[in-house]
Amino acid sequence: MAETIPPDRNRSAGKHRGGKSGKVADFRYKRPPQPDARAPGGREARRPVRPAKAGPRTRPDLADIGAIRAPAGGEAYAALDLGTNNCRLLIARPSGRDFTVIDAFSRVVKLGEGLATSGRLSEAAMDRTLSALTICADKLQRRNVRLARSVATEACRRAENGPEFIERVRQETGIALDIISAEEEARLAVLGCHILLEAGEGPAVIFDIGGGSTELVLVESDAANRVPRIIDWQSVPWGVVSLTDTVGRAEDSEAARIARFARMREMVAESFAPFAGRVAGAARHPDIRLLGTSGTVTTLASLYLELPSYDRKAVDGLIVPAQEMRGISARLSVMTPYERATLPCIGQDRADLVVAGCAILEAILDLWPARRLGVADRGIREGILRSIMAAERQSERSLKALKSQRGGNVSGRPAR
Q: What structural domains and CATH numbers belong to the chain?
């Protein structure tokens, strides 16, 4: 895959902080100092979620993992993705050129709730997120994680207090989050899920509908590389949370729900217009392909399969007729929130957000009218893990080459 993604010619959505740092920190996680167990009354004191007002917390020592070690079987790598709606962690060990997952965590934290109207992360949202990240920190400590990369995306890019929250996370949990650009987010999503693209020679679009933004990436197969070559991309500031908060939640009648859905589609289509114009020629190819990674596409795929509960093995890698996805989307858009909440695989957490995801998906199908849609329950985290492991393999090859050049002595002194 090309190391540099073509620049997005539409930067109207680009008031983002963060850049393509490519940073991979070597973290040996250790929790911050705990309160004295000998608390008044003889009961163990609990560590507060927020730092005490009297003064700053002592910075945790990230160079020492402490006495907790993972069972034999090799050191682990970790990827943490803090999005606008979800906090997700994946811990894995290398297995050949792939990896084996040994631990995972996912929680809906709604970090970006209210951000579209206030421009700031709320105290309640930050507290929810810190609670989830504390669990992640404990897992990273227990699993003997040698290399980890933790990233934050659209909510922290857009929020006025995003950098302050990142520092608070570091002080309270020891996790150093890297606010990545939309460009890096798109690259990692492609790296994480491209293997599920349908076979074919035509161009493909890979998309990621997030909580605060949506990334679209035009790729083409590259016989010389395992990863498809990126031709063009765009990120727009519409995800399931940001679009829902902007349009509002007025669903008191069927007419209101229809009008709300139409407004969502209109807003998203307008943002996609520059990208749609640039890929119009490629979209006329007879063998175009489409692959989506997000809670929206996995949820709709679950409804298509009529699953009683979510099953990743059944959904990840599924190919669904695009027209079927449009039909499910249309039905969801006119349901009441209560009706949506009672459906398997949606529930209360997704009931108020899935309609925005459907509007974004329909806009994507309009500009890239593929006959089928590939579904991926993988993305940024897997992309991070593959990046880390590839960098490690390259480092090992470089070290071996250096040793060979110096007769097995990397110090640079003549071998005796």
A: 52-180 (3.30.420.40), 184-378 (3.30.420.150)
